[in-house]
Write a structure and sequence with these properties.
Helix content is 35%, strand content 27%. It has a 6-stranded mixed beta sheet, sandwiched between helices. The chain is an alpha/beta fold. The chain binds adenosine-5'-diphosphate and magnesium ion. The site of magnesium ion has 4 residues, from helix 2.
Length: 274
Amino acid sequence: MYPKKDKKAEEARRIMQQAIENHTADLAPVIDGRKVILETTDVIRQYNQYDEVVTAVNRANLRVFMGEFVAIVGASGSGKSTLLHLCAGLDRPQAGSIVVRGHRLEDMDEDALAKFRGSYLGMIFQSHHLIPHLTALENILVPTLMCSRSEISYDQHLKVLVASLDLADRLHHLPSELSGGQQQRVAIARALINRPQILFADEPTGNLDKANAEDVLQLLLDTRAELGCALVMVTHDLSIAARADRVFKMEAGRLRLWNNRLDGILPGYEGGEE
Ligand SMILES: Nc1ncnc2c1ncn2[C@@H]1O[C@H](COP(=O)(O)OP(=O)(O)O)[C@@H](O)[C@H]1O
Ligand SMILES: [Mg+2]
């Protein structure tokens, strides 16, 4: 009896070890009963511009819980996009650590990181970044080429996405044949196709009129509710930020908590200048 049990435990350990090596195990720490899906510690990203060094992100510390809506506001050039790209594993910091679902991104080589990103992270870029020679449908499916998750029923998921984003009659068109709003909806579908655990969105409503901006925001909030994922959004729109659980402000690469709805803290929040 005991050897059998040991064998089972041994097998479970082996599977867990394999999952850790493949970065598939969910190792997210739990703090106060809430799962920490993303944690950055003292992250620094600098760029060389001519003979100057620009510190785009300066010791950023950010902890995001599963299911949370975090907004990041700040003036243009303050480092918001850089931070988002770092958290999404699209760029590497010079210093500091970024941990997603308990895995340190710096421990992954480029292949592992690309796979991890495709499996668990969704990114909506400021300027869509659709591949011009692929149709809308092909663009949406790009992440699944890199990694498809066995627990997702893609046919069904795609149908729901296409319907909710109103893209059914645009699927076989190239990005150049789509309006700006349609291109953005394709980019959103691409970000959601692998049912991410964190959805990053870089000013997703920046180029939209008020009605369309509200639709996109509602869609992202509905997605968060359905997937239970975290939503980390850069926005200039304070009325959108006001709906987030927490708002961070970026100032010359420095990130600070600006508003925490759960704790009712409003440090200088009303009267903000964005
Ligand atoms: N690829 C890059 N090369 C050099 N400098 C960059 C690059 N990307 C961003 N920067 C600089 O980093 C700073 C932050 O930029 P960014 O993160 O795009 O700000 P934001 O999104 O808040 O407008 C700016 O000074 C910008 O010029
Ligand atoms: Mg930006």
